[in-house]
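Re: Re: token formats

Sure, here are both.
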Amino acid sequence: MIDEMKKQLGVMTLDAALALARGKGMDLIEVVPTAIPPVCRIGEYGKYLYEESKRAKEAHSRQAASKMKELQISASIDPHDFGVKLNHAIEFLCDDMKVRVKLRFKGRQKAHKEIGFGVVNKFVLDVAAWGQADSPPKMLGDRDLNVVISPLPRNRRAKNPRAAQLPEAAPAEEPDDDDDEEETEETEETEETSSAPSKPSAPPEDLPPAP
């Protein structure tokens, strides 16, 4: 038994626990029903449900955060590197993961942040068939530009390009009937030749005596 101040009161009967809770104008809440004996606490049932709901939401948020991948790009990123990062983002989105795109301004790039915004907006546009931004790209501090992209529902999401690039299995070659027939005919001819009776060889003629 645990009271409203989370102090352990020891083991007591159900009637005694109910009487104690009612005497304080509160409820008796069973918090660990599988324990032996079950664990109960004194408190307000409505507040208890609110706290449980809040804990469940926090756990869900932590789980969602663990399914997020981060990609870092720059305002002067090379087109090839941009394509590589884009492919990684598409793969993560197809695996139902969120993607955080982070662009850090360096040196003089901070004076032309519109270039960085253009790069990030292009990134978001290029992955639009697989995911959408939770909110427009925004600055975090003075140097970092961030945007979080969430995967689209599977029924609205484009196919995974990685799966489309997998090589297809080569079809099995069908046997050539003509070749089989030719081989069969050759076999039959060989059998007929071998089964024919062999002719007796002519007796050797008498050779003249040696001089």
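Second one below.
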Amino acid sequence: MRSWAATFTVLLLLGDAAVVCAAPKALRVVLSSPLVAEGSGPDGCTPVVSGLGGPAVWEVRVERFLLDGKALVETSREPNLNHFPLCIASRPVAGNAEVELSFVTHNGGVARVAGIVLRFADPQDFYVVEADAVAGRVRLVRILNGEWREIANHAAVLAAGKAQSLRVKATGEAFAVTLDGHAVFEARDSGLALPGRFGIWSRADSVTSFGDLFITILD
């Protein structure tokens, strides 16, 4: 993870998203402020569900492995592998961006994933880069009109109880994905070209702690 702490100087409240501005076009979307109590709802994103199942339930929890000691965790614990809880920030809106997320997966049920949502238009139309600790893979998926299509995937080392960093750079049709600073894969897809919002992605009963989103707009 890059050292952003010395860079951020101004806190802006944009709708329901808390965003910290650094240099022009560089943003930190605060999902779980260290100032709020454990068990509170998300600071900077709105719960959404894609796929099947009930509503997403996101809560602030203590996470000693992440910056500020707090994290956002999805707690509905539905074991359905087609249940995808998301939390989507209202700002920024962009097509081209580099996005970084720190996360910790914990041993749980049928799934252990963390993901970055890109170009979100609605729960039926977006991209996601998913790190799957059960499968030992990172994949790029496009959801278009509710239909899932895997664009690329590659084996990766994902360990429970350890802070890891996922990053994706999306410019036009090109996507470059890294894990813990190491390149995982590059891919191309033109299915969703319009600008959209950003967020985080969980799956089924994953017990995953999500840090903040660091976004550099490249439009």
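The mean pLDDT is 89. The chain has one domain: 10-217.
- S.
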